Give the backbone structure.
Amino acid sequence: MRALIIGGTGTLGTAAQAALEPTYETVVASRSTDPSVDITDEASIEALFETVGEVDAVVVAAGAVPFKRLTALTSEDYTSAFTGKVLSQLNVVRIGLPYVTDGGSFTLTSGILSREPIAASAAAAMANGALESYVMAAAPELPRGIRINVVSPSVLESSTRHHAAFPGFTPVADEAVGQAYLRSVAGARTGRTLPLD
């Protein structure tokens, strides 16, 4: 079985790959790999799927949002958050659907900020919540038994540079996050948010 991991060179993508590799042939794509992809560019997503071909699972562990205090956020910031984290992942599903085998899966990535805010996180919380709502609503409409879920981790143990922004949060082990991606890919659930707090 083959799994495409988009954003596979980042912390989350690396955790996903480590969990999937014993069972799946993994193909890693990011801006810096070959094949490469920029998920904010529809043509780049199309080129990736044309290059990779049929897969049994797609994991998206990529997305960017601005972090600013609420009173400093502009309309452009909210648009950037939506484009960088929400629309980009939705386009992977939309464009990649014909390339996923019957009974295959998509796994997207949101984050704890949809349910536990930190300072300057309004745009990120908006994006994460939108992804989780999309997955819930999209799951019943996906054809050919294809499933879709979203992994929603807290700050990771290995992301030490982010720990100070999450006071009072218990960092999550990278391995636990990887196992959540594996549950989504190899399990039977669909339309679900898999939280790791």
